[in-house]
Design brief:
Elements: H1 2-12, H2 16-33, H3 41-44, E1 59-63, E2 65-66, E3 74-78, E4 84-97, E5 100-109, E6 116-120, E7 134-138, E8 147-148, E9 153-157
Helix pairs in contact: 1-2
Length: about 200
């Protein structure tokens, strides 16, 4: 996964949509063939990637603002298998969507392998996408879209939104998106679970 995202960052420097195609195709291959695929073995044979068509308006370079002094740092996130995982609120990004700017919290994984994680919810959840949300970043697993750390800037390209492993099999344990990261509109980008209208994909 880290190698895939390294390729994505490199290609996105000159062609973000081609980077997305690389990501889409390689993730489909990994779902089918990787030994740690979240899919059950009998589900892999007929699997195909379900994604919305690439939308360049959903790629942003935004500031990762640090957590303000006095705001709570430790925050529990519910786990898909029950219980909670305590994460540290690392900071936030404010994204200038067409529907208006929205602020999303970015967390640091205190357990597991560390790294930044950005889970979010939107109005497609429970229908086209996993009810408990999707991820945009999870640097512990290499899911890093890049940016300029010297300026505290990160790339937030929602065409790369993806499902946690627990969306495919309940044996996987995943931190779920918190209510503070709920977008109040449909974000039709990235992975989806339902079969697709041919007009909505590429």
């Amino acid at each position: 996964m880290a190698d895939l995202y390294a390729a994505v960052r490199r290609i996105a420097d000159y062609d973000p949509e081609e980077a997305w195609r690389t990501w889409r195709d390689e993730r489909e291959r990994m779902y089918v063939h990787h030994p740690q695929s979240p899919l059950a073995p009998d589900a892999r044979r007929e699997f195909h990637a379900r994604v919305w068509r690439y939308d360049p308006r959903l790629r942003f370079e935004v500031e990762l603002a640090p957590q303000a002094a006095g705001e709570p740092l430790a925050e529990p996130l519910a786990m898909s298998t029950g219980g909670e995982m305590r994460l540290t609120r690392f900071g936030s990004i404010t994204v200038p969507f067409a529907a208006g700017a929205r602020t999303l919290a970015v967390y640091w994984l205190d357990d597991y392998a560390g790294g930044l994680i950005l889970p979010f919810l939107d109005a497609t959840n429970g229908a086209e996408t996993y009810a408990a949300g999707r991820y945009l970043l999870d640097t512990a697993k290499g899911a890093d879209l890049g940016g300029d750390p010297r300026r505290d800037m990160v790339v937030a390209d929602f065409n790369f939104a993806y499902h946690p492993s627990c969306a495919f099999d309940p044996r996987w344990s995943c931190p779920l998106a918190p209510a503070v990261n709920r977008l109040d509109f449909r974000l039709e980008a990235g992975e989806r679970l339902t079969d697709l209208d041919p007009e909505s994909t590429t």
